[in-house]
């Protein structure tokens, strides 16, 4: 079992990482990086749930959101083959 100070340090690191990556998602224009960042956010939230002894919800969150939703987002992005070059050319014209 983790000591209380180690627990708080790990939770604060995960929360800080979640907030930083969430802000990156809001500012980035690359949809693929945003989807990968969203996956990182889901994993951090799942680990936080596991640390606070909500194992069932953490595993369900990890399997549903990371396993299904993020993979679906990436599949759609790769299916449409969106590239930044094409978007930048349309903005210039």
Please give the structural blueprint:
Layout: H1 4-27, H2 31-51, H3 55-80, H4 84-92
Can you tell me about this structure?
- By secondary structure, the protein is an all-alpha fold.
- It has one domain (4-92): Up-down Bundle (Four Helix Bundle (Hemerythrin (Met), subunit A)).
- Helix content is 86%, strand content 0%.
- It has 4 helices and no strands.
- Helix 1 (4-27) packs antiparallel against helix 2 and helix 2 (31-51) runs antiparallel to helix 3.
- The mean pLDDT is 85.
Q: How would you sum up this structure in a few lines?
A:
This protein has 93 residues and is mainly alpha-helical. The protein is built from four helices and no strands.
- CATH architecture label: Up-down Bundle
Q: What's the CATH first level?
A: Mainly Alpha
CATH fold annotation: Four Helix Bundle (Hemerythrin (Met), subunit A)
Radius of gyration: 17 Å
Number of strands: 0
Provide the CATH superfamily.
Answer: NADH-ubiquinone/plastoquinone oxidoreductase chain 6, subunit NuoJ
| Alpha-carbon distance between the two ends | 60 Å
Proportion of β residues?
under 5%
Average pLDDT taken over every residue: 85
What are the main properties of this structure?
Four Helix Bundle (Hemerythrin (Met), subunit A); mainly alpha; 93 residues; 4 helices; single chain
């Amino acid at each position: 079992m983790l000591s209380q100070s180690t627990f708080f340090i790990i939770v604060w690191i995960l929360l800080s990482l979640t907030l930083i990556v969430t802000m990156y998602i809001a500012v980035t224009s690359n949809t693929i990086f945003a989807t990968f960042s969203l996956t990182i956010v889901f994993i951090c939230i799942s680990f936080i749930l596991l640390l606070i002894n909500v194992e069932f919800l953490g595993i369900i969150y990890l399997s549903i959101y990371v396993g299904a939703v993020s993979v679906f987002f990436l599949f759609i992005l790769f299916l449409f083959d969106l590239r930044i070059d094409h978007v930048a050319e349309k903005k210039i014209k």
